[in-house]
Amino acid sequence: MRQANTAVKRVRHPIPTIDELLQEMNSSKVFSKLDVTWAYHQIEFKPESREITTFVTHKGLFRYKRLMFGISCAPELYQNIMQQVLQGCEGVHNIMDDIIVHASNQVEHDKCLENVVRVLQDKGITLNNDKCEFNMSNVVFMGHVLSGRGIGPADVKVKAVIEAREPRTSPEVRSFLGLFNYSARFISDLATISAPLRALTRKDATFTWGKDEQRSFDELKRRLANAETLGYYDKSALTNVIADASPVGLGAVLIQEHNGELRIISYASRSLSDTERRYSQTEKEALALVWACERFHVYIYGSQFELLTDHKPLECIYSTKSKVCARIERWVLRIQPYTYTVRYIPGPKNIADSLSRLIKEGKTSDNRENVTE
């Protein structure tokens, strides 16, 4: 299909991220997970599209009648079709062939589940009964354990890390770090801890496994094994974005108040580039606020929230009457779409402070683009 894919006209249909779906599951306590049998093969090609899938065998020419793996546009087509099928059904979301039904109580859950199954039957979509899970208090979805208490890393992801042996080559180090792709939100200072290992993955780096690398390897395992359960984002709850900058790094925490108790929704941290490290401290602190907003965009866009900082000048800089340098002015413009107020809190009270203070030479923990000018 390599040559055929060059002729395929792709229509872009975005596939939702896990962050976009998690905030819809606040207060859910009952879950069911549905798995579509041979997902792509449930979608039939139009007759005029079938010829492009023709392939040669020793018994002649054959072509597919249904969507199959290998077509470049298959993922977004399937996602778009499934979203159209499930449109109008309450308490259901899907990422590709994984469908999750959720509700705050058993009655609502059963009503949602019956509706979803009926819609799938009407469309001729079949489910794999062996992989479906019904009426669960917790369920694994896209590498996360979802429950009424909140969000945690899946046991299979944790087990893969705990049982991993020490890497012996740079590619093995890269593979080990890749195990944390679904778990970065649960580890507050991932960029710092993994810095010695990330150094081994750089181009032309000499592979040397010493005490620093072993310490980083063991600490990553320990942190993930003891990862705390994070809360669901609640659009109606009081929201704080705490950000801080040190000479070498940025840290941020998304926090909400649930029933009088503060709950952490997500952590994020990253190191500063060589250029950013030459900024003044005020510029670094201003950058931290911009980066934190854009990092948590999927949660806070369209909602009122407070930006908390331990750098008091930012209260004035991010006010409507401030006159700042060109670089900070551009950053101010970048966060104008957000509805926020900046509030000063002393450094010792700032829990994001420990994230940035410990950043050394690591990369960004969330693989996001740096917010620089």
Question: Any chance you could write out the topology, listing elements then pairs?
Answer:
Blueprint: H1 2-5, H2 18-22, E1 30-35, E2 55-57, E3 60-62, H3 74-86, E4 92-95, E5 98-103, H4 106-122, E6 133-136, E7 138-141, E8 144-147, E9 151-153, H5 155-162, H6 170-178, H7 190-193, H8 195-199, H9 211-225, E10 239-245, E11 249-258, E12 261-271, H10 281-295, H11 297-300, E13 304-309, H12 313-317, H13 326-334, E14 339-344, H14 353-358
Parallel strand pairs: 10-13, 13-14
Antiparallel strand pairs: 1-5, 1-6, 2-3, 4-5, 7-8, 8-9, 10-11, 11-12
Helix pairs in contact: 5-9, 10-13
What can you tell me about this protein's structure?
The protein has 373 residues and is α+β, with helices and mostly antiparallel strands. The protein folds into 3 domains: 2-140, Reverse transcriptase/Diguanylate cyclase domain (Alpha-Beta Plaits), CATH 3.30.70.270; 153-225, 2-Layer Sandwich (Alpha-Beta Plaits), CATH 3.30.70; 239-358, Nucleotidyltransferase, domain 5. 32% of the residues lie in helices and 21% in strands. It has helices at 2-5, 18-22, 74-86, 106-122, 155-162, 170-178, 190-193, 195-199, 211-225, 281-295, 297-300, 313-317, 326-334, 353-358; strands at residues 30-35, 55-57, 60-62, 92-95, 98-103, 133-136, 138-141, 144-147, 151-153, 239-245, 249-258, 261-271, 304-309, 339-344. The strands form 4 sheets. It has a 5-stranded mixed β-sheet with strand order 12-11-10-13-14. A hairpin with a 2-residue loop joins strand 11 and strand 12 (261-271). Helix 5 (155-162) packs antiparallel against helix 9 (211-225) and helix 10 packs parallel to helix 13 (326-334). The chain is globular. Mean pLDDT is 85; it is low at 357-373.
